[in-house]
Write a structure and sequence with these properties.
By secondary structure, this protein is of the alpha+beta class. It has 6 helices and 15 strands. The protein has an 11-stranded antiparallel beta sheet, with helices on both faces. The chain has a two-stranded antiparallel ribbon with strand order 3-4. α1 crosses α4.
């Protein structure tokens, strides 16, 4: 992998990640951009104890542009985009409309490929491996910023999720605090460690799924993927490296090598979940499955509030889920979910796992 860092016309950082060591990235951003102005502010909810990012400048962000005006495609002639070069493998740049900025963290965009009409599932294993290297490198770089405590790499796919740019891309949020969801995991981890004289809750969750077997989706030498016992979403898969590590930086070579094959297979199965079965018409003309793919990594800040827990106790894992519950129908977060944070799942996890095994690549 070759890494080349440069600056856009308004001062934002952009980084090219190339599979070839002889790639030259010296194109200049020719757009007449004013310096980026953000109004991000982190406010704490005194009752719930969580944080809300107030970012009014995002109201003016790019919204569903036509394909020939996509800001994530390479620049071509007089059509100038966020990427100055006329081609790229993987590129990462600071978001022009960030939810977090300055002392409130940082937001970056990750473009997986220059092909506007592709998706992550269309990538080759080499391309997917390069994305993994980019995620890992950005995690390392962002962890050194004084305002950053946790790094979150994720992809939103599909208009149903709320994606406003059709080009295959993801994002990285570098938070100035430990996120509420991670804090919940850490509290459960600490309580279990104390109650069991040192046992690791993540290890026990994975061991229980392996022992039960009904919710396993796939298993390889270095990875295991399963639908969790208490899945929140209609189709939800958790992917763990078999050797527990706290973050992407800790992945061993074997897991890195195997990841592209495993992850691409999971994404392709997600796109086949709602295909027609046994001659039925269900699924005909169904758009690609909308999903969120989210990497959970240990915070880089102090964990003193989670008594007895260290970063090494946390288990890196990816959570992949869709809001589509059946063909043509979405799972909405209505009263119970949005009002009380109590999820109601219409698809039994065992049924979801069975379906995800049925659509395995032959």
């Amino acid at each position: 992998m070759k890494k080349t860092s440069t600056r856009l016309a308004d001062g934002r950082e952009l980084v090219y990640y190339d599979s070839r060591d002889d790639s030259v990235r010296d194109a200049v951003d020719r757009r007449p951009l004013d310096p980026t102005v953000t109004t991000s502010e982190i406010r704490r909810d005194p009752l719930l104890g969580d944080a809300v990012a107030i970012a009014s400048h995002r109201q003016g962000r790019t919204y569903h542009p036509p394909a020939d005006e996509c800001p994530l495609c390479p620049s071509q002639g007089d059509r100038l985009s966020e990427i100055p070069d006329s081609s790229y493998d993987v590129v990462v740049f600071e978001n022009r409309f960030p939810s977090l900025a300055g002392d409130s963290g940082r937001c970056e965009v990750v473009c997986f490929t220059s092909d506007h009409d592709a998706s992550f599932a269309d990538l080759t294993e080499e391309q997917a491996g390069l994305v993994l290297e980019a995620w890992t490198d950005r995690t390392a770089e962002l962890s050194h910023l004084p305002s950053v405590e946790q790094v979150f790499c994720f992809e939103n796919r599909g208009a149903e999720i709320g994606v406003t740019l059709g080009h295959p891309h993801g994002q990285i949020y570098a938070y100035p605090f430990t996120t509420p969801r991670t804090a919940l995991m850490l509290r459960s981890l600490a309580a279990h460690k104390q109650a069991t004289d040192g046992a690791n809750l993540f290890d026990e969750v994975v061991a229980r799924e392996r022992a039960d077997g009904t919710r396993i989706v796939l298993e390889t030498e270095h990875w295991i993927a399963f639908v969790p016992y208490a899945a929140h979403w209609p189709y939800e898969v958790h992917l763990y490296p078999k050797r527990r590590v706290p973050d992407l930086l800790g992945l061993e070579d074997g897991a890195r090598t195997e990841f592209p094959q495993v992850y691409l297979e999971l994404l392709r199965r997600f796109d086949r979940i709602f295909d027609a079965r046994d001659g039925e018409k269900e699924g005909e003309g169904e758009p690609p499955t909308p999903y969120i793919a989210a990497w959970h990594q240990a915070p880089f800040g102090t964990l003193e509030e989670f008594e007895g827990v260290s970063r090494d106790d946390f288990a890196l894992h990816l959570e992949l889920f869709t809001i589509r519950r059946t063909s043509g129908k979405l799972k909405f977060l209505a009263g119970s979910e949005s009002g009380m944070s109590v999820f109601i799942n219409d698809v039994p996890p065992e049924t979801a796992a069975q379906r995800l095994r049925e659509v395995a690549s032959s």
